[in-house]
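Thread: "does anyone have the structure for this chain?"

Original post by V.I.:
We have the sequence but no experimental structure in hand. Need at least a predicted one for the grant figures.
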Amino acid sequence: MASQFLSARFIGPFEILERIGPVAYRLALPPSLAAVHNVFHVSMLRRYIHDPSHVLDPEPLQLDESLCYEEVPVKILAKETKLLRNLTIRLVKVLWRNHQVEEATWEREDDIKARYPELLEQSTFGDESF
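Reply from O.Q.:
Generated one for you, tokens below.
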């Protein structure tokens, strides 16, 4: 059974498509919520309070000739070792071009070393280098 303390009480904001009745509204839900019925009682809704920090300025993307975008790592932010039953996995936290620090991802060190060896050569943590 899921804990009520781990789930968000309200998500959104979502556009109101129509008023169904005196107390029901149909919302425009994203595809990730396709399994959820899109009509809600007014008690389940909250007014959206505008917050300027919710608006993100998109960074311009550089596309190649085939209109593809390739993620390029900029920097290694942290490292970590995960111990599984009989396996040790070294991970590195990678900051990617055109992304904020909050969007950095944990990747396997050997994968990064294979694709971007120069990135690990220039990264150091204290006295230890990769």
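V.I.: this helps a lot. The chain has a mean pLDDT of 83.
O.Q.: and The CA atoms of residues 3 and 96 lie 34 Å apart.
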